[in-house]
Structure formats: C-alpha cells, structure tokens
Design goal:
The complex is a heterodimer of chains A (66) and B (506). Chain A is mainly α and 66 residues long. Chain A has 2 helices and no strands. Chain B is built from 15 helices and 18 strands. In chain B, the strands form 6 sheets. Chain B has a 6-stranded antiparallel beta sheet. A 4-stranded mixed beta sheet of chain B has the order 3-16-17-18, with helices on one face. A two-stranded antiparallel ribbon of chain B has the order 2-7. The chains are: A mainly alpha (66), B alpha+beta (506).
C-alpha cells in the first residue's frame, strides 16, 4: 500500500490518446446502459412519489436545527 | 500520541405532517419518540428506558475548546423538558429543538458507525409506524434524513470523534478544516439550487452538499447560527483531562452506506495522523468559508481553490494528497487507531472513490449520494420534460431521503450495502461490544425499571432502600464486553453489581 502512488500525473486519464479514446467509448456505452437501467427504475419511482408535488414541496418547511 | 477513534453520529431528522395545514414539529417529534419508547417498553424483552431521565449534570455545551467563549457567541441551550429515551443498543433517541434526533452509541470504528446509523434509520421507521397507528390518517407523521428544507433552514448530522487532549487544538483546526472542505466531494448528499445568503437560489442548478451554504465562520462555538466549519464545543462526555470529543457539524446526512463509511473513516484516520504529528504538509486555504461553498457549488470538480501561499489546488487533488499520507500511515501501523482491518478497507474505498471521481463520476452512482441523486433527478426531469426546479423534481430529490422501506428510493435505485439487514435489525436492540455502550445497553436490558437516569458517561441506579447510586464511566473504552460481561452475568441486581464494582475499586 505504501508504495502505491496516488499522484495525479499517473491517473489513467492522462495516458496516451488511444486509451482516452477507448475510455470515451466505454464511458458512452456505460452511459447508455445506465439510461436504460434508470428508465426501468423510474417506473417504480413514479409509483412511490407523493401526489400533489407542488403543495407538498411548498409546505415542506422545517425549523432550523443545529 | 494517537488513540483509538471511538466515534458516533447524531442525526436530526426533518419531520412533517403532510396533510395538516398547521405544523407543530416539537409536538410531532415528541409523539414520535414517545410512541417508539412505549412500544419498546411493552414488548416482551422491552428494555428501552422510557422512564429514564437524561442526566444533564455533565452537559456543558457552552465550554469552548479554545478556552473562554468570545463575547456574543451563543452556546446551545440544553432543553431538559423534552422527551428522551435511552435505548438498549446504547443509543439516545430524543427531541432536539424541533426535530427528532438519534445519536448512535459509541462505536469502535467507521463500519460500526454505518451499522448503528442504519439501525437508527430503522428505529425512526418503526417509530413512524407505531406513532401513525395512534394518529388519524390526516395526522400522519413522516421524517426525512436530509439537512435542508430548500428554503434556508438547515438541521444537522453531526459526527463525534474521541481525540487525545494533549493534541494542540490549533493542529486539529488546520488539518481538519482542509479535510472538511475537500471531503465534500464524497460526503455530499446533493441539493437543487442555492441557499447561501445573498445568492440567487436558482443561480446553480445542482450542488454537491446540503450543508455548505450554511457555514459562515471558520471556527466557533455556535451550531444553529453563524455555523463554523470547526465547532469548538468542548464537552467530552469523558475524562476531560485525557480526552476531547471533536464535534463535527459540517457534514451531510447520507443515505449511502459507502458515503457514511468514508466520511467517518477518512476523518478517523486524519485525526489519528494529526495526533501522531504524521502530516508534513500544511494545506491552508486562503478563505475557508468561501472554499467550502466553492467546492459544493461545482459538481464538475474542476474549481481551483486559493491557498494562503498564493497557489491553487482542486478539492480532488487535496484528497489524493490526504489519502497518500493516510495510506502510508496505515501501512506503518496507524490503522490500529481506526479499526485495524477496517482501516485497510477505508483506504481501499477512499482510493476507489477518488479514482471514480477523477475518471467517471457516474461510475459511483451506487456509492456516492450526490452522484446517485443527480442521475436520478436528471433522468426523471428528462423523462417528463421538466426543469430541475420543477416541484415534481424537487419532490423526488426530497424523497431520496425517505427511510421507509416501501418508499426507500435509495434502495430502489440499488445503493450499495455494506451492512446486512439482519445486522441492522440486531443493532436495534444490541449495543456495540467494544465500548461503554455495552455496559449501558446491557444494564438497560437487565434492569430498565431500576435505572433512574443515564448519560453518555454515567448511569444512576435505584438501589434497595430506595437510595440512588451514580456509576460514572468516564472512559469510553471501558465497560466493553471483554471487561464487564462476566460481571454483568454474575450480578442478579444493581445492588450486587455495585457492591462488586466498589470492591474492585478498593
């Protein structure tokens, strides 16, 4: 552990152009997977949301605490 | 010299009765705490000390770690008339100001804090359930584990760490300020808009933390007004000649177990490094109060922060530097002060999270709250073609902090778990075994009706002949299972317990 180097210079995103491209591609793929994954979840989330959002959010007032 | 970082978290929950036009949060909080305490007391094993008074003899929130409090600063009032329950897991569940608040028992490391923080969420959930059974549907009580109502009112999630009294407080101020400002990149729970005074509330769509907007001072005693980054409340709840309790008020309440783990874990290791004088470089911000907001207001993590030597640095770069020191410290044996093998896991998680923040923050969508919440609300806004400031999006952002199982959005979106459900449930009724919380919890389980009052560092028993005896436990590492289990098993009454303690003290 002590020998590991955490300096920014060695972070993967500063590697060669090729690896940046590969990373960008894999990031894009991950993002589209994420989008479809979230889409399914949003159906479930719609079902637990409180009704009358405007009124609910407006009346959500707390006393300041510590 | 570093000492083991016994630690804990106290969380003020938001409370609302959504169907009522008039809100009375103090009353609602009392109903909630009372309902939980009563049902726990009447359950079969029921050891909750509903009737136990909180012992305020040792409460001195006005003491300032810097010595005399400056004129004009306001120590918090201790409200003795409000409801208190001491729980058989060693926790305290009570009404503070206008919020229900739960303090975890004293824990031995960051992973145990995560467990008892989750048990605390379950206790709030159970409290809502039993309270709402006694109320009409219109009076339903709901709590949220957040830190801001979006309208300029904030309430806290405080951390506490046991610190060696001999460590100069100035050293803690220097290094902890730097950590608190920069750790926000993984501790933040995310917030729509801005609440800082004098800033247009819609000038930033989304910021990293809930709390940063409310910090106006670098160092100070207050917790409700002019909140300071470093809180100087000097109230150790322990032997004050040996210990401090560092009371950290600038963190967010987290739904993510990874975030709580890393928040408490990184801070525990940092404090041990300060005690051992291990940190060589002093990173000092030119204007900490501005920096805490600058970091929070920049989810791109690119913000350059001005140091007092005229150079600049990003929060992520500071965290890499602290991690580098922490990793070296742990590899040289310092991990023993932050949970041993747990300290190794803190280092691994810290590295994983900083790498993710640097390369692809969305990869941390199941581990870091502000990232999970941002993806969620942005996807929701896109799907329904809404602005991020639309009430429906704000409602979803609020419900991210729901702890009820059937509405627990953080669970629906699959935040990573470090603690199993059975461990969480076990933690509701059972104290940590490594600290004085064990003694407190087991005594409450055995003799709930004979404990008259309790505090973090004492229990008062009612003995035969109706006289009272106060047992102090001034060292948080005393009273552990290893030290008192056989004593507690042998004693059939508080009288026997105290007779044996007095004999061993002679």
């Amino acid at each position: 552990m002590a020998d590991q180097e955490y300096s920014k210079e060695q972070a993967p995103n500063e590697d060669s152009d090729t690896s940046i491209d590969e990373e960008a591609i894999s990031t894009n793929q991950a993002n589209s997977e994420l989008a479809s994954e979230l889409d399914g979840l949003l159906d479930e989330i719609d079902s637990v949301l409180e009704t009358n959002a405007e009124e609910f959010v407006k009346s959500y007032v707390q006393k300041g605490g510590q | 010299m570093a000492i083991p970082k016994i630690c804990g978290i106290e969380t003020e929950y938001a409370i609302i009765q959504p169907k009522l036009s008039e809100q009375n949060p103090i009353h609602a909080s009392s109903v909630l705490v009372n309902a939980y305490a009563k049902q726990a007391e009447s359950s079969t094993n029921g050891g909750v000390a509903y009737t136990v008074e909180w012992d305020f003899n040792d409460e001195t929130p006005g003491n300032d770690a810097r010595g005399l409090a400056p004129i004009g600063s306001l120590p918090p009032l201790v409200e003795t008339h409000l409801v208190n329950a001491v729980l058989e897991n060693g926790a305290r569940f009570y009404v503070d100001h206008a919020h229900p608040e739960i303090s975890t028992p004293e824990c031995i490391d960051a992973l145990q804090v995560v467990k008892y923080d989750r048990s605390g969420e379950r206790i709030l959930e159970l409290a809502m359930s039993v309270a709402n059974e006694t109320l009409s549907p219109e009076e339903e009580i709901v709590v949220y584990k957040d830190n801001s109502d979006g309208k300029g009112n904030s309430y806290g999630c405080h951390e506490n760490y046991l610190v060696d009294r001999l460590t100069p407080f100035g050293e803690i101020i220097t290094h902890a300020t730097t950590h608190f400002i920069t750790r926000q990149i993984f501790t933040g729970s995310g917030k729509i808009g801005v609440e800082a005074t004098g800033v247009d509330s819609n000038s930033i769509k989304y910021q990293i933390t809930q709390r940063a907007d409310f910090f106006e001072e670098e160092v100070g005693l207050e917790t409700t007004l002019k909140r300071p980054i470093i809180n100087t409340r000097d109230e150790p709840h322990a032997d004050a000649t040996k210990y401090r309790r560092l009371h950290v008020i600038c963190g967010d309440a987290n739904m993510s177990e990874t975030a709580t783990f890393l928040k408490v874990g990184s801070t525990s290791i940092l404090l041990a490094m300060i005690e051992d004088n291990f940190l060589t470089r002093r990173i000092v911000f030119d204007n900490p109060v501005r920096c805490i907001k600058e970091v929070s207001h920049d989810p791109s993590l690119k913000q350059q922060l001005s140091l007092n030597d005229g150079s600049t640095i990003t929060a992520l770069e500071v965290q890499w530097e602290i991690l580098k020191s922490a990793s070296s410290y742990v590899s040289k044996g310092g991990g023993e002060f932050a949970g041993g093998v747990v300290a190794d896991e803190i280092i691994n998680t810290w590295e994983h999270v900083l790498t993710g923040l640097e390369n692809n923050p969305e990869s941390l969508r199941s581990e870091i709250d502000w990232i999970a919440k941002r993806l969620l609300i942005e996807s929701f806004a896109d799907r329904h073609n809404l602005s991020i400031f639309d009430p429906k999006v704000r409602l979803l952002a609020l419900q991210y902090h729901d702890v009820r199982q059937e509405k627990r959005i953080s669970e629906i979106i699959g935040l990573k778990k470090l603690i199993t459900n059975s461990e969480v449930n076990y933690g509701i009724d059972n104290p940590p075994q490594e600290t004085r919380a064990y003694f407190r919890g087991v005594c409450l389980q055995k003799w709930p009706e004979l404990i008259v009052s309790a505090n973090w560092d004492s229990l008062v028993f009612r003995l035969e002949g109706d006289y009272l005896k106060r047992i102090p436990i001034l060292d948080p590492s005393e009273g552990s299972l290893a030290k008192v289990q056989s004593l507690l098993e042998r004693a059939t009454s508080p009288n026997e317990l105290i007779a044996e303690i007095e004999l061993s003290n002679k």
